[in-house]
Model the fold of this input.
Amino acid sequence: MTGASQADVEHFVRGTLGCGCPDEVFRSMVVSRLPAFAGRPPIVQLLVGSRLLIHVVAPPAVEPANGWIEQLAANGRSTRDRHGYNRFRLVVASLAPVASARELTERFARAVVGDDKAHLHFVGTDQLPPGLEATARQGEAQSDLSRTVAK
Done:
């Protein structure tokens, strides 16, 4: 995996995802790879400043995969709340536009109803910082190793 620079991650978080995080949040960034588990796709977890939790996933190869977006929403919110992070952003990254984006958006909204600190984003893999784009390749082996991107 090619490492993402602090500037790459900051551009992605602010420019692509539209986060208004203050500068000090970007002093610490940790990337973790969570392997597929119990029907959940592999996740690249990006923790920015111990305040912003981002999960980057590829959409399942076969749509609709029952409950995957709801499971990711529940897991991300649970992790956010358990660790006291401010926000959770689920990023679905793919080479081509996700055909079921509207349905997924509606399902995500129902899963997080009343939670204004959970957000869903659809991005092209070319919009991801180096090292995070691997999530959009289905079947790629993922490890659970963590790596600090910048301090």
The CA atoms of residues 23 and 41 lie 31 Å apart. The chain has one domain: 6-150. The radius of gyration is 14 Å. Residues 68-83 form the longest helix (16 residues).
